[in-house]
What we know:
single chain, alpha/beta
Amino acid sequence: MSGSPFSQSTKNIYFCILKIKNMAALINFGEHLPITNPTWIFFLVLCIILFAPILLNKLKIPHLIGMILAGILIGEHGFNLLARDSSFELFGQVGLFYIMFLAGLEMNMEDFHAIRWKAIVFGILAFIIPLVLGFFSNIFVLEYGVVSSILLASMYASHTLISYPIVTRYGVARHRCVSIAVGATAITDSLTLLVLAIIGSMYKGEAAGSWSWLELILKFLLAGVFIAYSFPRIGRWFLRKYEDGIVQFIFILAMVFLAAGLMELVGMEGILGAFFAGLVLNRLIPTVSPLRNYLEFVGNALFIPYFLIGVGMIIDMKVFFGHIESMKVAGVMTVMALGTKWIAAWATQKIYGMKKIERQLMFGLSNAQAAATLAAVLVGYSIILPDGSRLLNEDVLNGTIVLILVTCVISSITTDIAARKMALSELPPDSSKSRVDNEKILISFSNQQNVKNLIYLALLVSNPKKNNGLVGLHVMYDNCTEEDRQRGKMLLRQAQEIAAKADVTLQTQNRLATNLSNGILHASKENDVSEIIVGLHIRATQDESFFGPVLLNLLNKMDRQIMILHAITPIDRVRNIHVAIPKNAEYEAGFYRWLERIARMGQNTNSRIFWHGHPQTLSLIQSYLQHYHTGVVREMCETDGGNELKRLSTIMQPDDLMVIIMARHGSVSFRPSLEHVPHQINAYYTEKNFILLFPDSYARTSSELTFVELHGTRGTYEKKKRWFNFLWEKKE
């Protein structure tokens, strides 16, 4: 280790620090250092957070390591620019909890459910093998005590999915090996934090070590059950009642610190509570939502960098270079962490007969050490033993930095190589399925009350890689007043603000037209949109058409997919999605388009999707989801493909969403029973969330074959045909 390029470059950095420090002493800067003014302290920290990523991107160094190195430079063991005052204690604690909360929030528990047994086996192996081999290496090679060896070995077992964005970039996140690695992360990190919490509780207070294991485990289980049972229910009620983004953000943070406080109250570490809070609340915080964006933005912009800089200020590089023992500790830690993770991936591959490339990808995803490792070493470093020494000394603290740097680099390189090979070895998706197609969504606004839900629906079903794929439209009559114009501008401005909070760009257009439906139609052609999202028409009288004249004309003249939304509760907080599918829906041109959109919605909201349809249709849906959306939790409910809306209305809950797949007249999936859908909606779904979805058609619809005729001549024709059939049968 001492002869490696990394070690030599680190020595050079250290000697440069000493030279600059000596020059500063000659100029007599020392009497003004360290800086104690809060304004200048915060300014300097913000400058580090601002400029460090710019420099680190050029040097190909992970940001996490860069922030720690910056802390070393400005700390008392570097240039002594800042003292580690109470602000670093406060923000550091918040940042540590934030890291663990975001780690739990990133866990897709639905992925874990789909491949639970393989993930459990890999998770247990990835925990036990590093713990056992690491324990013996710490005892016999590093000659540490039993408790220190267990805690240090548990650090080898944890891992952080820092290279997960790589597999999503290559489009291989749907593979079982990736899902196994993601599910195993929840197991290894939970077990690691449990070991950390138990060891930490042994050294708390005057009764250190006197608690019975039964009492400790019982209190932990009670706190865990309370968090798992009450937090989702309280969170769902609050987020449904209060829609202000800032209020929701503060509420989530309060829940995180409540969970951390409860764990500390029962004698465990608060980081375990923050991690659990992320696990139980992740279903309430969609991946694509302003609230998720708030949480990640604030954490990554302020709290987590503050925490990492504070960690660097603790580290004394003189201890590392001044002792051969420090280099020995760093070498053992790195070798054990990498080697044991490879053994766990290899054993899982052999048990389940997986491919070599899958083992390589699992190893790449599971060997990076970051969040839980930092948490463990800081807790161990803060524990003072009766003889005055620390449970984990400075050698381990400095060795952890080397461990994190080496494992993060190897994890990124290994994952990139494996994901690239896996992507190249696959056949390209069937182009007829239009998964990654010419996607551009037009959202038509007419009512201020449903602007937020229409934007949320578009965010949930859109491709996250297409940041400019949303177009907002408001159409007015060409003889409208200035007040109408201002109202339209206000609607579009509100829509842009909502989209911006989710870090999505929304193009807007305020359009004049002699006919509202023609205005929407022309806008869709000009922007070459793939589909349209609109709100359900609000009828002024009972005699008025269910869809209204604008929607009826759109359905009559367009062959693009149209989604008509009626939302009682926030659309991004649905718990279950029911999809009613007519028979022969798979023969429609837009079958795979709407299937992809609903799958994305289920994935982004972590909802369970109930597919109600004919067995032949469900078989194709199952095959598609297994290939492209393995993480979507689904249940196939076989029917004859007829109209099931009356029956399904009895099983829907207030937070459920019904998606009704419609069909235009003349299409192969059209059935006369679909004519009764508007009447059934009026009877059973007025107080429920639903979407009416009209798929793409094979050809541009004509005035003779269209859903609009359901309320006009076509409906009359069908009735007359049945009447003549009845008379003929009676005559026979």
